[in-house]
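Our preliminary data section would be incomplete without showing what the modeling component actually yields. Below, a chain of 206 amino acids is followed by its predicted structure, encoded as tokens that our downstream tools consume directly.
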Amino acid sequence: MMKKFLLGLAIGALSMASLASATVLAPGSSGAPDPFTNAGWTLLATTGVQALSSGTFTANATSWVYSDANNTFCAGCLDFVYLVTRTGGSDPIERITAGSFAGYLVDAGVVTTSPGQTPISVDRSANGAVIGFNYQNAANLTDGQSTQLLVIQTNSTTFAPGLLSVQDQLSANGVGFQPTPEPVSMSLFGGGLALVGIARLRRKKN
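Predicted structure:
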């Protein structure tokens, strides 16, 4: 039992060490978009190009999900990637959001080598579910402009259909992807807590 307990602690330590190299976007926080590369990506699924309309703008949007050998949370964990191009309308695009990422570790940014407009900031809702890429003010998407490849890195290894939303004053909603069903780090953390609890019960009995 002691060997299993030590193994659990070692796994937890390795998990925490891997987080040291990642910039975690915590629920309720915001910041500058982090730089990413698409080296090591393996495509798992795509929505293809979707035509979206809010009534005040039109856009084409594509969502992808990749297994990433260089993911900063764990090798082979998933990256959720988006590209939006404004195709017309009277209003610029100011914000792009994706969900749901509640309960997962997230790092968000852009592939710096991809062409297109860089968001001025990224943010995460207070409950952790919605990741937003902001293009307000001078960074608005107008006149056929596209985003860079927008990236949400996670500690998930499985995925399901999710929601993509492109916004000005109104929103145009499309299909994206989201992680499911349980974060890797939370599984390890829960297993570690269970081992600690067992060890304490055994000490009390002895």
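Helices lie at 2-19, 184-205. The CA atoms of residues 93 and 168 lie 5 Å apart. Preliminary results of this kind motivate Aim 1 of the renewal.
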